[in-house]
Amino acid sequence: MKPETTNTIRIKTPFKKEGRLVVLGGGESGIGAALLAQAKGYEVFVSDKGVIKNKFRELLNQHAIPWEDTQHTKALILNADVVVKSPGIPNTVPLVAALKEQGIPVISEIEFAANYTQANIVAITGSNGKTTTASLTHHVLKQALSVGLAGNIGASFAKQVQANNYPNYVLEISSFQLDDCFSFRPHIAVLLNITPDHLDRYNYNFDAYVASKFRITKNQTATDYFIYDADDPVITNWLEKHPTKATLLPFSLHKRIENGAYFENNTCIITIDNNQIIMPAKDIALQGKHNIKNAMAASTVAHLLKIRKQTIRESLENFHGVEHRLEDVLKINKVNYINDSKATNVNATYYALESMDAPTIWIVGGEDKGNDYTELFPFINEKVKAIICLGVDNKKLFENFQSMVDIMVETQNMSEAVKIAYKLAESGDNVLLSPACASFDLFENYEDRGRQFKEAVRNL
Question: Which domains does the chain have, with CATH numbers?
Answer without folding.
Answer: 19-107 (3.40.50.720), 111-318 (3.40.1190.10), 327-458 (3.90.190.20)
